């Protein structure tokens, strides 16, 4: 039996991706990265993209340089692309979407750069070891599923010194998914209070960042930072596992904010 297991393991070879030293994993064809807006193609009298967005993530910018797209609300459905007959908006292929600042999630024609996720104090405190308690605060399980993927053999999150733990008393911080329903608000507050200082909070997915398509619903609190302070925002609906991993490593100073 043991010989059979060893032969199978040898034949399978190395299954864990060589990240970040090796090539990036293949992103699906439908993957949508950080948006890009071309103000030169945008008509000032057109608001079709604004009307088409189910998450109300697009607004007419006050600067007059075209629309602004809040990736913290965006569900990356592509409705805006179909509505825009001038081709003023497109989604890139970059997986680097996470930001330490909420305002940096808003994309304008003047700024479509990779947002910064790095925090010096976080690297100093947790750069070598980070334990997280995951809290599903009313999520649909999509963000939870893509977060769990990081624990599989191919991703092996533990090799970066990052692990999920069962108790907030064993954690350095929280990773929150879901729009924070009214029924989960008290549980989230208590879980946050149970984590010893110093601690960090990571909001994963549009719902956790802003409430997503549920942000105006009376039974939600409109995102994690309405209840607890947030140190890292990871956009997506759901975010790709690579986007989540990239955000975590850039927050810890393990990757640069401009690339690997």
Structural class: alpha/beta
What is the rounded Rg?
Answer: 19 Å
How many DSSP-defined strands?
10
Largest sheet: 5 strands, parallel
CATH architecture of the largest domain: 3-Layer(aba) Sandwich
Helix tally?
8
Total domains: 2
Mean pLDDT: 91
Tell me what portion of residues adopts beta-strand conformation.
5-15%
Secondary-structure element pattern, one letter each = HEHEEHEEHEHEEHEHEH
Strand order of the largest sheet: 7-6-8-9-10
In the CATH scheme, what's the topology name of the largest domain?
Answer: Rossmann fold
* Percent in helix: 10-25%
Instruction: Give the end-to-end Cα distance, rounded to a whole number of Å.
Output: 42 Å
Poorly predicted regions are none
The level 1 CATH classification of the largest domain is Alpha Beta
Shape, per Cα inertia axes: globular
């Amino acid at each position: 039996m043991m010989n059979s297991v060893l032969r199978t393991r040898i034949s399978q070879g190395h299954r864990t991706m060589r990240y970040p030293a090796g090539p990036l994993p293949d992103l699906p064809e439908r993957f949508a990265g950080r948006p890009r807006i071309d103000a030169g193609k945008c008509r000032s009298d057109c608001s079709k993209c604004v009307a088409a967005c189910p998450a109300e993530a697009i607004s007419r910018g006050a600067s007059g340089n075209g629309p602004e797209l809040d990736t913290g609300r965006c569900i990356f459905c592509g409705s805006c692309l179909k509505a825009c007959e001038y081709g003023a908006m497109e989604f890139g292929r970059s997986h680097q979407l996470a930001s330490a600042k909420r305002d940096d999630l808003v994309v304008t024609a003047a700024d479509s750069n990779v947002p910064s996720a790095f925090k010096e104090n976080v690297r100093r405190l947790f750069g070598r070891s980070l334990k997280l308690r995951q809290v599903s605060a009313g999520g649909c399980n999509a963000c939870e599923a893509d977060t769990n993927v990081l624990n599989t053999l191919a991703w092996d999150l533990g090799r970066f010194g990052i692990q999920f733990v069962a108790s907030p008393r064993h954690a350095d911080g929280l990773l929150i998914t879901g729009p924070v329903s009214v029924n989960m608000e008290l549980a989230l507050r208590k879980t946050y209070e149970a984590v010893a200082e110093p601690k960090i909070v990571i909001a994963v997915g549009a719902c956790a960042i802003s409430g997503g398509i549920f942000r105006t619903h009376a039974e939600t609190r409109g995102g994690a930072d309405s209840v607890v302070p947030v140190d890292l925002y990871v956009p997506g609906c759901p975010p790709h596992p690579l986007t989540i991993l990239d955000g975590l490593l850039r927050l810890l100073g393990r990757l640069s904010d401009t690339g690997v």
